[in-house]
Amino acid sequence: MKPEPLQTVSSPQKGLSTFDTPDLPLIYIDDFLPPDRHNVVNHNAESETIYSPPDDSSKQINAPVVFPRTPPLIQEHFIPLQKWEGVVDQVKSDYFIARLVDQTGTTPDELAEFMLDEVSKGDRTLVKPGAIFYWNIGYEESLGGQRKRSSIIRFRRLPAWSAHELEAAKHDADRTRDILNWR
Amino acid sequence: MEGFKDTAMASQNPEISSVSVVLIGSFNPQIFQPTWFSCEELIRKEEAEAAKIQIIHPEVVVFDLEWLRMEVTRDRFVAITEKESSFDILRDLVLGTFRILRHTPIRMMGLNRDMHFRMASEEEWHAVGHRLAPKEPWNGIIEKPGMRTLIMQGKRPDDFKGFIVVRVEPSLRVPQGVHIQVNDHYQIEDQKAMDGCDIIMGILDSSWKTSQERSKKIIYDLMEAK
What we know:
The complex is a heterodimer.
Chain A: H1 44-47, E1 77-91, E2 95-102, E3 110-115, E4 132-141, E5 147-155, H2 163-180
Chain B: H1 2-10, E1 16-25, H2 34-39, H3 45-49, E2 52-56, E3 60-64, E4 69-73, E5 76-81, H4 87-100, E6 106-118, H5 122-132, E7 150-154, E8 162-170, E9 177-187, H6 190-193, H7 198-224
Antiparallel strand pairs in B: 1-5, 1-6, 2-3, 3-4, 4-5, 6-9, 7-8, 8-9
Helix pairs in contact in B: 1-7, 4-7
């Protein structure tokens, strides 16, 4: 069987790659060089001498956008221990009750109470019956190696369905019901 | 699936783990600003106020939140998080964004999973390269062959159009580390993409969990292969 063309694995400068980290590595693995990257020669210049067949010349290629390389996103490493998806069942004055589904699949669904104070202020307006949230428990480890126990609750944010989308969903449901002849 | 979880749990934890969603289509970068996301209630107001803006320009927007980096050009949208507790939040943000901008033509999507592992010893680090790229075929052709990047492409195991690409290379971020990336690539016909992004977003919504589990399994299988 003929393999799929590799075009979308080309460099992102051509705007086709769905990789997010396009950089070539600067070091070799296995025996050639030590793992100490500070002693490594930058070999990227070599890649300029590799022949690559030109793309279809009839297509205009836009000038590349080159992103500045920025530092790593976060400075703390999160080590997950447990993860649940929750659905708010009832909201009381200072707490709410939710049904939790274990995302690691090791324990059955359960009900739990959460103090509203455990929810970030920016998410409090989202605490309503039916709202979905994610609850992660784990360790946050700093670059210095210091670990701290962490419990993170974050509510799902999705825009409300539009009238058009609701109508389309109703239409699909009607069609399915007709196919099943379910009255 | 349980077998996969057991395998994953038995393995060493990655030093860095990230997911990203890369979309290829036609975008108006200037829309994608923290204040817009906040006004649409896709992120918290406090997050928008604390955003670190790298650049806002008609051609390119780059900004960071505590848990997210976003890079948008006219043909490429990238949202990435390295915070494992925010992986699903990233999916929701992309879904929410393009539920609002539903007429945006998008024709390709990459659901990418990256992990950087620190190897216990230099020997183990070298062994990964020896195992995945044996040196025998190179003997006498080049001196001291070493694996710099290995890219393998495979068929999709489902009915979607696209492919799966796995890249293995020395980590640039973790000393004595191995970086493995899985590019779970989906694409649709250009004509369908012109109608908007409902199809691609439907794939994102329905395939996210499967994709994440599959990519994780690929990475752990590679790390544990003998």
